[in-house]
Design goal:
about 400 residues, alpha+beta, five-stranded mixed beta sheet, rod-shaped
Length: about 400
């Protein structure tokens, strides 16, 4: 409930509390001014004073203790009926006391149970009011009764119309209140759902970041260490000082390169090859370095017009190529490798082909026995940015890895 609604309820409660006092006082004042003409007999004036005193006592009692019995219930109905009877008697003595009868219009809903009984109470209040409007009761001739009947009908028609619009307004108010309550509940539910989604998004982000770091570390430290081990194995089996020096130098370069890549991966930066070169040049250098390191001839080909891709897409293409080449060096026993980068209207593809011994793609495991991420790791990288990865291979006929990614340019 708003502050304005609370203030309105407070004012309405104050009005219903003090209105009967005010109407009784107004009727008493006007009756006393006109008592010489409308209540010429001393007995009438005495009866009026007694009834006003009784009415005032009843109002005070209801205001102080009767609130404990607020209903509607039997006590409130009794209070309403007795107050109406006193007001009716006062109106018979002096028509100006009809102002006190009007109090029954304001609190019938609060004191009388049921809509039919409430309408009956309103009709009862209209009787002394119509009598006062006619000129006072009892009526001395037939014309007075006819006028009274007409005024009674007119008052009740007016009451019915006013009551109808009041009920319509109350229904609209209740509907608005129900709508506001539903909106508040929906807002609370949305807030709870949003908090839940934030938690889920945070957890998903943490899991995705763990996978990214795992893949990055695999691409940097694991592949670098594999290359270093290969160079050191050559050193261990060689007695030629020049060859030893050459392979130790390559192992040192690989260690430095892997260290730099590891630092950049942890900092969530692009691969080192993309720090200074575009994707085509970075791939060309990667292929050349891999060929020099493994001794397997490798060729890089660019088709289409090169575009400046978004950093994450360029890094994904480079990482997939590095992983595919690492798999070739470890498993394929190939004599020739080809890497093709193709830019098309709405996508970019990278194809890595070798003439090695091949394998059965259906027999792939999620993780290799050496701890690598293999084909599943490359596929996860591609799918993370709405791409796809396919592998075509057959034992004895080489392997072709193809990654297709959306063409998302650098902003």
């Amino acid at each position: 409930m708003t502050t304005a609604d609370s203030e309105l309820d407070r004012r309405q409660a104050a009005f219903q509390r003090w209105a009967p006092y005010f109407l009784l006082g107004l009727g008493t004042f006007l009756a006393s001014v006109t008592s010489g003409h409308l209540m010429p007999l001393a007995g009438e004036r005495l009866a009026g004073v007694v009834l006003v005193a009784v009415a005032l006592v009843m109002l005070v009692w209801w205001d102080r203790s009767g609130r404990l019995h607020r209903g509607p219930n039997a006590v409130s109905v009794t209070y309403y009926v007795v107050r109406w009877a006193i007001a009716f008697a006062l109106t018979v003595l002096n028509g100006f006391f009809a102002f006190f009868v009007v109090a029954g219009y304001y609190d019938a809903d609060e004191l009388i149970p049921g809509r039919k009984r409430q309408r009956l109470a309103l009709f009862a209040c209209s009787i002394p009011i119509a009598g006062a409007q006619t000129g006072g009761m009892p009526f001395r001739d037939r014309a007075g009764w006819l006028v009274f009947g007409g005024l009674l009908i007119a008052n009740n028609v007016l009451l019915t119309v006013v009551k109808f619009f009041a009920e319509q307004q109350e229904a609209r108010s209740q509907a608005r209140a129900a709508t506001i309550t539903e909106l508040e509940q929906a807002h609370e539910e949305n807030a709870a759902l949003q908090a839940q989604l934030l938690v889920q998004a945070r957890e998903a982000g943490i899991a995705d970041e763990r996978r990214r770091l795992a893949a990055e570390i695999h691409d940097t430290i694991a592949q670098g260490l594999t290359g270093i081990i290969a160079q050191l194995q050559v050193v261990a089996n060689s007695s030629d000082p020049a060859s030893v020096k050459e392979h130790v130098g390559r192992a040192t370069d690989l260690a430095r390169h892997s260290l730099g890549e590891a630092r950049r991966s942890v900092q969530n930066l692009a691969p080192e090859g993309l720090s200074y070169d575009g994707l085509p040049e970075a791939l060309r250098k990667t292929v050349d370095q891999w060929s020099e390191r493994t001794g397997v001839p490798a060729e890089f080909t660019l088709t289409g017009t090169a575009q400046h891709l978004h950093g994450e897409f360029s890094a994904t293409v480079l990482r997939i190529t590095q992983e595919a080449l690492a798999n070739v060096s470890k498993h394929a026993a190939a004599t020739r490798v080809g890497v093709t980068l193709s830019f098309m209207d709405d996508e970019v593809t990278v194809d890595i082909r070798d003439d090695g011994k091949g394998f059965d793609p259906l027999a792939l495991s999620t993780r290799t026995g050496t701890g690598g991420f293999g084909v599943d790791g490359m596929r996860a990288r591609a799918e993370r940015i709405a791409g796809s990865l396919t592998v075509e291979s057959e034992p004895g006929f080489g392997t072709a890895v193809s990654a297709r990614l959306p063409l998302v340019l650098h902003g």
